[in-house]
Design brief:
Oligomer: single chain
Number of strands: 2
Shape: elongated
Length: about 50
């Protein structure tokens, strides 16, 4: 049985766009139909990694 999913997002962006990316990362899951269909039955965590 699947209980948890951890997603690592690798983002290549200009340093000036970092604040915007972090803000969007904070709320994007609520707009994702896959996330909404599996949450809260499966715990989903995400991590944003900048290059």
């Amino acid at each position: 049985m699947l209980k948890r999913i951890h997603v690592k997002m690798l983002l290549e962006a200009e340093p000036a766009q970092r604040e915007t990316a972090e803000r969007v990362h904070g709320f994007f899951a609520q707009a994702c139909p896959i996330y909404r269909s599996i949450h809260p039955q499966i715990a989903v965590t995400t991590e944003l990694i900048f290059r």
